[in-house]
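Narrative of accomplishments. A recurring question from our advisory board has been how the design workflow behaves on a single, concrete structure rather than in aggregate. To address it, we present the structure tokens for one chain from the evaluation set, followed by the sequence designed for it. No filtering or post-editing was applied between the two.
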């Protein structure tokens, strides 16, 4: 049939689910229960949407690497087992951490692919007998994943999108960094660029600037070897290095000025400065 007997239109629509052919203009049904001569089953529908009822198992999925033993039961009575009780305590912790990390990642606008890395690292930590609070651990692992991928997300951004305080975050991060042997997740380019940004804002001659950069570069290498940057924002540590270098070359400047250039508080500069003297075995005599 080439034309609709009701309106004469030649445009027809075939509903592949019901096998019905009807007129596109007036809706007149021309035939029903048509046999689909196409393949028996397809992976996608006409709109390109997947019809698959299964998907690859993600490493972050609950129960990953678990197995179930099927045994015969002679008793005729059965009982319903809550789904959560099918997992041991470790897997329940993974489920909780996964949920928290997923929320933090979504709130911070980060790619979802980070979630797999976070959960895999947490499973690795559990094998090392790691014990820490779930919320703080989740945020710390998300932060580590961001720094490894050079994603533009700071520690303050993550803390702002969670109910974790800075003290709890630092404690969890330091513990994780020691177990996973993370010597420093900041690359040299980031540290040098921050150093140049602060040094170029100081009114000194180019000769002193060159000497400052050489000295600070040496401090950075020693700081990375002693885990100086672990658990802290590198901005405050670099600012303290700049301040210490200026004192060594007898350039008079206030801590408050350096703090303003770096965007941190003078109290933070003072704390990082004292830590530098202890970690790097410096002794400044003024």
């Amino acid at each position: 049939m080439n034309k609709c007997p009701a309106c004469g239109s030649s445009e027809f629509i075939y509903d592949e689910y019901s096998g019905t052919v009807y007129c596109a203009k007036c809706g007149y049904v021309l035939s029903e229960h048509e046999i689909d001569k196409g393949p028996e089953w397809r992976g996608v529908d006409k709109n390109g949407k997947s019809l698959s009822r299964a998907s690859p198992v993600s490493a972050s999925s609950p129960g990953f690497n678990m197995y179930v033993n099927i045994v015969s039961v002679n008793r005729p009575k059965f009982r319903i087992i809550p789904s959560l009780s099918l997992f041991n305590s470790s897997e329940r912790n993974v489920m909780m951490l996964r949920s928290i990390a997923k929320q933090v990642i979504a709130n911070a606008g980060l790619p979802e692919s980070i979630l797999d890395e976070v959960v895999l690292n947490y499973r690795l930590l559990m094998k090392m007998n790691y014990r820490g609070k779930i919320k703080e651990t989740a945020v710390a692992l998300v932060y580590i994943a961001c720094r490894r991928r050079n994603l533009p997300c700071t520690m303050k951004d993550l803390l702002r999108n969670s109910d974790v305080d800075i003290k709890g975050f630092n404690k969890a991060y330091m513990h994780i960094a020691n177990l996973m042997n993370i010597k420093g997740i900041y690359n040299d380019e980031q540290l040098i660029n921050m150093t140049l940004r602060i040094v170029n804002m100081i009114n000194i001659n180019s000769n002193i600037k060159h000497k400052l950069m050489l000295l600070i570069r040496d401090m950075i290498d020693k700081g990375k070897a002693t885990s100086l940057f672990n658990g802290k924002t590198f901005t405050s540590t670099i600012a303290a290095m700049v301040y210490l270098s200026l004192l060594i070359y007898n350039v008079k400047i206030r801590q408050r000025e350096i703090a303003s250039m770096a965007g941190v508080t003078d109290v933070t500069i003072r704390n990082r400065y004292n830590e530098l003297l202890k970690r790097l075995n410096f002794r400044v005599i003024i």
